[in-house]
Structures are given as structure tokens and as C-alpha cells.
Amino acid sequence: MKTRAARALAVLGLAASCACAERPPAAAPSAAAVGAAESSDVTPSAAGDSRVFRTLIRELDRDPVAGQERIRVSVDLGAVTLEGRVAHRLAKERAVEVARVVRGVRAIIDRIAVTPRQRADSELELTVAAVLSNDPVTARQRVAVRARNGIIHLSGDADSMGSRHIAERDVLAVPGVAGVKDDLAVRLQQASDEELAAAVSRIVRDDPWLDASGVRVSARGGIVALAGQVPSGAERARAEYDAREAAPWRVDLSLLQIDPVFHDDGTLRATEGAPPSDFEIEEALGEAFILDPRVYPFAPTVKVRDRVVLLTGVAPNRAALRAAEEDARDVPGVANVRDDLKERASVVQEDDEILRADVATTIAGDPYLGLLHIRVEAQRGRVVLRGAVPTEIDRVRVVSLASCARGALDVDDALIVTQTGLATDAQPWKPGAFRR
């Protein structure tokens, strides 16, 4: 039985300033912004942040994948930041999926890092093949596995879209896998009742938009029957949609009832509601860029039309460019992203020692960080930070200072946080959580 994660309230200051620019003061909200806030389910505020925070922690804890990892969470006017190190790509993607379900989340800044595990492609191929063979859903599929630089290429046949998606998730859960290229062809075939029930059970369990804790799945003669209780009509419809992904002859919902007592659990499961407006998406993304130290002080130009985001501007480095696009894709309600960002031509350093010295001097000049023992290295424009810092906000500030150095193409954060950074009266911390 999975042990419920213990939690300690911690501090995560996301408004880390940069040596090359100060964060601009918050502008007074426009009439349009006020109207948008009043029309939303959860008005961006400290009270709204507290609700989002508690709901997200609960949902992450309940998730069978993300619940096994240590993920730090903070909320700032509906903008959620996820940080920490996880064992595999599936946990990283799952945490973002869960955050999308929480009502009041306006933007998601995904700074979760997958713990690097170097594995030879030949070893990955054998491991992935074994995982697929041991899964009762994917064992019957005709799947060929190839690995190249940590990317797994799947080819062959799957008997349904559900089986194809399950295969992708199985692969992403293997430590050392950097990504999946799925070229599986779906060729519908009738599975046995046992196989159908196993596939549908897996699909409904993995759907963050469905609370499947009260759903029972069975199959007979190619007909999948769902029984039990779900909290809302929207989730009942979602359960039927999920079951059809396994390609049964028919789905029987006659024994799947809707809970007559509605309980608002703080998520969007009961009803997904209307998607955010273009203005709301643009406003949320602009705030996410300010809160994300990987992007700030770079400020891309954002235009949104019919929920399609267009990003333009000149990014200081490739890392900022990638982070800006990732933030845009993670904003709830975004249908697509058109990335027209350009990378600024880097300043060629004659010697990495010049870059290393610039970063070290900047950190040493900080009245507090200068007292810490932080080692700085530079390798072809990539800054590597090593050492220990007392709190999470100190780590964020060190990374922000390093990223602003002239000629820094990327920052490799190898810093260790030695304390949880609990709030004190002397420090203006914001709510956060450290899931253990």
C-alpha cells in the first residue's frame, strides 16, 4: 500500500531578481483584467492561491505516479511552479497533467528535472522490451523497440489507441529514457475479455480528469461494463470516452451512477467549463514569464488569437527560448503555440575563464550570497554551479544571477539546498510545499 506523503510547509520565493535587471513593479489592473478576474472560478488572490495550493498538493499525493516523487509546489496569483527531481519522464509529465485539473490554475511553470541516468542504448532497448512484455496490456502487441541517444522509437502494431498510449507511458516510466517517438500503427483487433478489462482499468486509472476510485470494470463478450459511482456527469462521460479507447464492441454504463450529493473538491472534473479567453491566456503567460527565472528578464512578445499563442522576440540564449515555449504550452486553455523566437548571437568568449570570473564576481558582490561557498565553472559558455545554499530562494537567485552573465548560454544547477526554508516573520515568503 502506498504510504501517504508527509508534507512540510516550505518557502519558495519565485520573484528572484537578476543582476542585469530588476523586476518591474506590478501595474494597476485594467478594467478588462478586473472583469476577467471576476468572471473566473477562483479570483487571483492570496485566498485563491491557498485553495489552489491545498488542492494541488492533495491531487499530486493521490496520483499513483507523481505521488511517489518529491515535488515542490508554489502558487502566485494562480501561476503554479513545480520543481524538484523525479526518477523518470512520466512523473514530470504527470505532475503537469494533474496541475491542469485544478481549478484556479492560470499558468504552469514546469521546472521539474528528471534525474539523469546514463544508460547505453542497447541496455535501454532490452529494458523497454522487457517492460512491454511484462505489461498484460502491451504484451500482446507487436512492438519493435529501438533506442538512439536515449530516445525510444516504437514501431509495429497496436490493437487500439488505448494500448498505444499505455505503451508510451510504460516507456516514459523507464529511468534513462529521454523521450518516445511513437510510430505504432493502430490495427483494431478483438481482445479477450480479460485483456479488455485490464486495458480499460489502466486507462481510467491514468486519466487525471476522472476520479476512478469508485469505478469497477468488467468485460464479457467484448462488452465493457462500468459500475460504481462517479462524482459528476462530466466524469461519467469521461469514463465512457476512456473505455472506448480500448475498442470494445460496446460500453455499458447502466450500473455507473452519479453521486447525488455534489462535493466541490476544487478541481475542474465536475465540469471543464469554458476555456479561458485570449486575454486571460496572454495575461497569465506574461506573469509566468516574470516568475520563471529561466526566462526573466527576457520578455517575449505574446499575442493570442483563438487560443493560439504567438511568441516573438530575441532570446538571450537557447535555454531561455526553450523555457518560454514550454511555459506557453503549459498554460491551461492554450490550443497551440507558434514559436517565432530567435536566439541572440552569442558573444564568443576567448576563454571560459572570463565567463567564470564574471559569474563568480557577481555572486561574490551579493551581500548575502557572497558569504556562501559556491563554486563556479564554465564549459563552452555553459555555467556550472556547485555547492550548498540554505534555502530554495537562494538557489533560485544564484541561478538567476548566473543566467544574466554576458556570454552565458546555459546554466547547469548542481546546487544543494540544505534546509527546507520555513517561513519566518522577517522574510516575505509565499506559500509552498515540499512533498516527501
Q: What does this entry show, briefly?
A:
The protein has helices at about 30-40, 45-60, 90-100, 120-135, 160-170, 195-205, 235-245, 280-290, 320-330, 350-365, 390-405; strands spanning about 5-10, 70-75, 80-85, 105-115, 140-150, 150-160, 180-185, 215-220, 225-230, 250-260, 300-305, 310-315, 335-345, 375-380, 380-390, 410-415, 430-435. The chain has about 425 residues and is of the alpha/beta class. Among the domains are: about 120-185, Histidine-containing Protein, Chain: A, CATH 3.30.1340; about 195-260, Histidine-containing Protein, Chain: A (2-Layer Sandwich).
Helix-residue proportion: 25-40%
Q: Low-confidence segments, ≥5 residues, pLDDT <50?
A: 1-42, 420-436
What is the fold named in CATH at topology level of the domain at 121-186?
Histidine-containing Protein, Chain: A
Please trace the helix and strand order, writing H or E for each element.
EHHEEHEHEEHEHEEHEHEEHEHEEHEE
Architecture of the domain at 121-186, according to CATH? 2-Layer Sandwich
Bulk shape:
globular
Mean pLDDT: 82
Strands of the largest sheet, in order across it? 1-17-2-3-4
Q: Give the percentage of residues in beta strands.
A: 25-35%
Please compute the radius of gyration using only Cα atoms: 23 Å
CATH class (first level) name of the domain at 121-186:
Alpha Beta
Tell me the number of strands: 17
Return the structural class. alpha/beta
Major sheet characteristics: 5 strands, mixed
| Helical segment count | 11
How far is it from the N-terminal to the C-terminal residue, by CA?
A: 16 Å
